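Why do we bother with holo predictions? Because pocket geometry can differ from the apo form. Keep that in mind while you read this record for zinc ion.
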Amino acid sequence: MPRRPQPRFPEPNTQPYWEAVKDGRLTYQRCNDCNAVVFTPKFHCAACSSENLSWHDSSGAGTIYTYSVVRQNRNPVFSDLGAYVVAYVDLDEGFRMMTNIVGIANPLTDVHCGQRVQVQFEVQESGDYPIPVFAPV
Ligand SMILES: [Zn+2]
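The structure, written out:
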């Protein structure tokens, strides 16, 4: 079972995001003043600086914008993974997140830009908060 680092609380910007992840929901924020999509979680809108933000559930569906294959990572937390994919995924709601692509046999050949993916929540041995990762659909 994966044992990735866990979020540390209190952390007022991201705690609502992580509590939603714990419930199996991927969330993002939207500015109630200018309608901009805000991600990663913030206290203010990156477009207009308004603090009038609301939380929304993402469908978890998205498209791989770009990716890279990490062939070896000596950090003990990641060393068991072997080769793995780090990707930017564009969610259908209009935000981009860095994540991993899982559920593939060969990370060198089974991933491509433009590929449709769906979020999964990877349970961690290291704590109560799963990590959102994505698998091809
Ligand atoms: Zn705004």
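The chain has one helix and eight strands.
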